[in-house]
Amino acid sequence: MTTTRITGRLTDDSGRRTRKPRNILTYVFLGILVVYFLVPLWFLFVASTKDAPSLFSGDSALWFSGEFNLFTNLSNLVTYNDGIYLRWIGNSALYAFLGGLGATVLAVLAGYGFAKYNFRGRDLSFAILLGSVMVPLTALVIPTFVLFSELGLTDTIWAVILPSLLSPFGVYLMRVYAAEAVPDELLDAARMDGAGEFRSFFQVALPLMRPAVVTVLLLSVVGTWNNYFLPLAMLSNSQLYPITVGIGLWQGLASQNNGGGGGPSLWTLIIVGSLISIIPLIIAFLSLQKYWQGGLAIGSLK
Amino acid sequence: MADVATAPATKPATRKRTARERQHSRTGWLFVAPFGVVFVVFLVTPLVYAFYLSLFSKGLATGTAFAGVNNYIRAFTDPSFLKGVWFVVRFSIVLIPVQMLVSLAAALVLDNLTNRFARFARLMIFLPYAVPAVIGALMWGFLYSPSFGPLEQLFGADAPFLLSPDNIFYGLMNVVTWQWAGYYMIIIYAALRGIDPTIYEAAKIDGANAWQVALRIKIPMVRSALVLILVFALIGTLQFFTEPQVLGPVANGTITPDFTPNIYAFNLAFKYAQFNYASAISFSLGAIVFVGVYIFLFVTRKRGSVL
């Protein structure tokens, strides 16, 4: 497989003959899919604009009713419990940033090493790595918890960040991509010109690997941001919770005393809090789409 | 996935390793080493440690004692564990084909269109991937809920409650399909874009219609993408945890503490502090996933050699 095939995948729709849309059914099918995939998000948005009574009235779940309460709900959200919500968002951002970035750096280095250096033990280590992709990561959470508790690391930010650095699939993606996108001739030429190994990596290889780097970065950031099992197991101090565990905590509390008393209903906070928590990643995906859309194809190359 | 064809980075001119090659080998290790450390510390060590923990048992009176394979005998005769395994296996068998069908159909349709609506649809279908599983499950929990959701408006008093014991299977299936189908669609779509369009021209000259092109050319050519997705889906579904755990509080007791093996292990460890037995459950689940995926890859690879 040549480099042109990869770059062919990266270009979006250009260079492809447009076929005439003959079939109205095609559009109906796509329309139904779009509606299906958007309904929960639409519900979330509409529900975020309601106060508790109109939320529970249930007579127009998918349309606005009552007063437009979005901004009241937002201000309740950020002030509730001394602004714990903002703290959770901040924690999520910190964990996702450090965990995702760290995992990406490790994956890029290792993927490049596997692809471009024929070191002793390479094939065996890579075979082990591929096998490890099949290990369910949740099976590691309980023993990691016990190990960390012996080291006094549970209930610290490191309990969430350090295990998130592990991304065998990221290494696999980077290796496949680097093997095809970085020509050996180019590296040899750089070496002839006197560039050291690390300079060749940073100045020649890394720019060529950019789409895969962005993809792996997005995948690991999303993986850490969305993780639930690991922080749920590791953390007991609610000040350290990421947003997923925090919202889960609220939902458990709200279900226990359904109806609630006065003040902002926890349910309205859960809804508006959920809405805010999905916005950062949606923006990241929309703004970086030209990179990841091509990058995601890498894994399917054989 | 193993057969990544990479030519050796350098072709040794002689059999003897030169100083330059040794240097080359060392640099290669330097690149791989940071990941290698993380791999050993956070994957190999917990795995070995889980196995070690699973060989002991802890009693109030007896303290920690070597138990050999007793925890495993207990696990594989424990109705809670077996019921959970049976649920996730059944769930995978039904869910994965549905998910594949939705994502494959969407990818094939999108591959045939190049207008603005298609681009919009592609992004919207993908969007749920960016939504945390916790939030996705919550949103569907709201939509299913009799007090918030639209189902009662649509169906009146006969509205199905998708979190009841009879319906939870489908309720969860819908959540997971919603969450992941778009991601799988994008992977298939990207693979479809990689097919050389001149193949279609040739097929057209031979008189193939759109269905034949899709079934005989496109699907076989994205086979490796489909296998990759299947493996992901299988690994993900067998360790099912987040969605049922999140829907638990609103499902009126439908989600039992042993609903899936992972939920069971979590509750054993963190509610009952039975870390040894929980490790045995985790390790057994890991082994089931590993063996299941390995068998699957072995079977599909054999067939793949025809290609």
From TrEMBL, chain A:
Domain ABC transmembrane type-1 span(s) in chain numbering: 89-287
Gene3D superfamilies found in the cross-reference section: MetI-like
TM spans (from-to): 24-45, 93-114, 126-145, 157-179, 200-225, 266-288
Pfam families: BPD_transp_1
Membrane topology: Multi-pass membrane protein
Family to which the UniProt record says this protein belongs: Belongs to the binding-protein-dependent transport system permease family.
Record-given protein name: Multiple sugar transport system permease protein
Organism listed in the record: Conyzicola nivalis
UniProtKB/TrEMBL annotation, chain B:
Subcellular location per the Swiss-Prot or TrEMBL entry: Cell membrane
SUPFAM superfamilies with a match to the protein in the record: MetI-like
Keyword annotations from UniProtKB, A to Z: Cell membrane, Membrane, Sugar transport, Transmembrane, Transmembrane helix, Transport
PROSITE patterns from the UniProt entry: ABC_TM1
Superkingdom per UniProt: Bacteria
Keyword Transmembrane: yes
Transmembrane segments: 29-52, 87-110, 122-143, 168-192, 225-242, 277-299
ABC transmembrane type-1 domain mapped to chain residues: 85-296
Gene3D superfamilies per the UniProt record, alphabetical: MetI-like
Biased composition (Low complexity): 1-12
Family: Belongs to the binding-protein-dependent transport system permease family.
PANTHER family: ABC TRANSPORTER PERMEASE PROTEIN (PTHR30193), DIACETYLCHITOBIOSE UPTAKE SYSTEM PERMEASE PROTEIN NGCF (PTHR30193:SF41)
Protein name, entry field: Multiple sugar transport system permease protein
The organism of origin for this protein: Conyzicola nivalis
